[in-house]
Task: structure prediction
Amino acid sequence: QLAESGGGLVQPGGSLRLSCAASGFTLDYYAIGWFRQAPGKEREGISCTNSNGHSNYADSVKGRFTISTDNAKNTVYLQMNSLKPEDTAIYYCARDRRSWCSANYDVWGQGTQVTVSS
Result:
């Protein structure tokens, strides 16, 4: 299972850190991706980290968001800085079937709401 937390309401320019806690499996063997879905829009993949720590980002978040993993806590984080109103969405994490980011996800969290508004 995956469980996201850390969402909330933040002003433009602010920061949030989302957590994705894994249970029932170890992150040592799986890549994890972060996604978001805004109302009326398609789900967007925004970042992924391989089990060895290599990561990638969508252009829309590059330079503002950072993905990281704490293997001891079996948790993946998404640090979000310089937030914009267009970052408002439900954020999800998902497990890739492989240890690298192959875009083949089989386990999803329930999502956490992020709202960027003044």
Remarks:
- The two ends are 34 Å apart (CA to CA).
